[in-house]
Design a protein that fits this description.
6-stranded parallel sheet; globular; 7-stranded parallel sheet; 389 residues; glycosyltransferase activity; Glycosyltransferase; 2 domains; alpha/beta; Rossmann fold; transferase
């Protein structure tokens, strides 16, 4: 089948989108992705083509610098907090219209819309071309953190729109059982399948460490990631703690780093090497937002793919997965003493935890989730064949 994917990201660093696209191409399908401000010269494997729509809004032209990452005065912070909802709606709306215009004259058999930001354009294209729609919800959109002023009316409109357009999808895909259950409760959808954000199995792993040499947090360096708790705990544990990832520099300027070694983002291989050398991965997020309680962070599956146990926040679906497979230890969100105790427990139980992670790797791998994705597309193809005149 010819698959049209829509995603309001740069594509180049979107591991979920690329992993799904590569899997579908490997199974004989072709994939075209319409992304957002894709870096010039980005190329991927044969069978995947990419086009791009720019990032702009009524407040900022394409290519103009964002206020994010700048040190702002109090009045500027207030203005940003006030106007950010309009900027986001304008920016995503312009991208969606541009994505529709880019795709409307292309030939495709299926529209695969990644996240709510692509849903309206995807539903319109699917309807006009008589193609099935796949809605790939990377998170619970209605439960996302809102780092701007409350927008209850807009939130209700978005919920109604997701219910209406997502309800038209031939298949709905999401990242974990928690989000799948929430979508079922909210909208009554019974066609939701789970494709985790897992990683491919490596052909071989280095010999496990006899004991951990440190801990690594590899992910977004910003609010609602429990980094304040990690910083407080860093003063009470002997193991060094490294934080690496793309940062919200505005937030980072006022962050007390404690004894943390905070580094810029690394390519995936570099982050993997760092985690394997340390031997323990920190998989953390807050308990403030519903999406955090339902989320299944990529960091968890990344650690499992490397054979590395985790120290994780005792929150929702993340805690359930860690307990189910005994992948590491848990601590109470916001409680530095609980985190210190969880780190010490992980050190004491380390050989057992390494063995547990090794046993869980095949089930929690992309090879398993790829089969789930391909099964969905096989069903779509069979349905299309049956409906042909």
């Amino acid at each position: 089948m010819r698959i049209l994917m829509l995603v309001a990201t740069t594509v180049a660093t979107d591991t979920r989108v690329l992993r799904e696209a590569r899997t579908l191409v490997g199974a004989g399908h072709s994939v075209h992705i319409v992304g957002r401000s894709v870096p010039e010269g980005f190329q991927d494997v044969d069978g995947i083509t990419v086009s791009t729509v720019g990032t702009s809004s009524v407040f900022r032209a394409e290519g103009q610098p964002s206020l994010k990452g700048r040190t702002l005065s109090a009045p500027m912070r207030l203005a940003r907090w006030t106007l950010l909802p309009q900027h986001r709606r304008s920016s995503f709306g312009r991208w969606a219209e541009g994505a529709y215009l880019d795709a409307k004259d292309r030939d495709f058999d299926v529209v695969h819309a990644h996240d709510f930001t692509a849903l309206a354009a995807g539903a319109r294209l699917a309807r006009e071309h008589g193609a099935p729609l796949v809605y790939d919800s990377h998170e619970l959109w209605t439960g996302l953190p809102r780092e701007y002023r409350p927008t209850p009316l807009a939130d209700r409109r978005e919920r109604r729109l997701e219910a209406e357009l997502g309800g038209q999808a031939a298949a709905v895909i999401t990242v974990g059982d928690g989000v799948a259950a929430a979508l079922g409760r909210q909208y009554g959808w019974d066609n939701v399948s789970v494709v985790h954000n897992t990683f491919p199995l490596l052909p071989e792993l280095p010999a496990p460490l006899p004991a951990p040499a440190g801990l690594v947090y590899a992910g977004r360096v910003a609010a609602f990631r429990e980094l304040e708790t990690i910083s407080a705990a860093s003063r009470q544990v002997e193991l060094p703690i490294t934080v690496v990832g793309p940062s919200d520099d505005t937030w980072l300027t006022s962050f007390d780093r404690g004894r943390l070694d905070v580094r810029p983002a690394l390519p995936l291989d570099g982050a993997s090497d760092l985690i394997q050398a340390a031997g323990l991965s920190l998989v953390t997020h807050s308990d403030k937002w519903e999406n955090h309680r339902l989320a299944m962070p990529n960091k968890l599956f990344h650690a499992v793919s490397l054979g590395v146990p985790v120290v994780a926040t005792e929150v929702g679906e993340l805690a359930r997965m860690v307990r189910t497979h005994d992948l590491g230890t848990l601590y109470k969100p916001g409680d530095a003493q609980s985190l210190v105790a969880a780190i010490r427990d992980a050190v004491e139980q380390y050989p057992t935890l390494v063995s547990n992670v090794g046993r869980a790797r095949p089930e929690l791998s992309w090879e398993t989730d790829a089969d789930r994705l391909l099964a969905i597309y096989t069903q779509l193809g069979e349905k299309e064949q049956k409906e042909l005149p």
